[in-house]
Amino acid sequence: TAFFAMKVYINGEFVDQADAKVSVFDHGFLYGDGIFEGIRLYNGNIFKLDEHLERLEFSARAIMLTMPWSRAEIAEAVCESCRVNGLTNGYIRLIVSRGVGSLGLSPKSCERPQLIIIADQIQLYPKEFYTEGLKVITVATRRLGPAALPPMIKSLNYLNNILAKIEAGHLGYVEAFMLNDQGYVAECTGDNVFIVQHGKLFTPPVSSGSLTGITRQAVFEISQELGLQLVETNLTRYDLWISKECFLTGTAAEVVPVVEIDGREIGDGKPGEITHQVLNAFKARVSVDGTKI
Ligand code: PMP
Asked: What is known about what this protein does (predicted)?
């Protein structure tokens, strides 16, 4: 981003992106000990800011990280980050790390958490993703289970997902389906999964091993608005293979059609009708919904 000299928020101050550095002794760096959010800014409105901040608080509670900032303070810092950078459309990365400590695993040595906000220009996915749809493959790397590292926590430890992403890349695909320990579909490496069958929407329950996606939640609302029935239920690879339509949801991806799964063409191999309806409704919603910066 050569033409965009970004200011990064670090613990209450804005610094030039070249000087935006944290200590190598931060446990976020040493151990992935921390949490984050990825948030979108549309036309000067932050989409579902309160929902993102609530999920951040849930993640913090789950990892026993006490945040010394109120939700309102964090919200203001997020808005300020957008204003300082003159952004009206963008992607906001909010990071809370455990903080600087000693080399031991224990977070007890970390004095205070660090709050970092990067408000960047949005790097959109290629248009073909939306017009032609994605080809996705199931990989061998299983999604971590709730008894190990609960996938509902949006933690800085993304190695599980990165391994799946690498595996997909080696197989010639950009995105992967990850299964849970029981063999049910959990999610993709950075997106939730929906299928369409007999005119209804289906998505795995969060308990199958996925993030409580904010875009997923928005699709729940959209399904109501469109009068589409939505069922949360365990899905197998077979359910995906025989689905009429399939799409992925995420803050960066928004709603992306899937047209091939494990070599099987989905529907007629083109993005489906209901997928289009959901995507259009999503686009209509994000342009008006949200918190004014
Ligand atoms: N699953 C994972 C593993 C993710 O990292 C994300 C966020 N990119 C999602 C699902 C989608 O969540 P959201 O809609 O809140 O961005």
From this structure: Acts on leucine, isoleucine and valine.
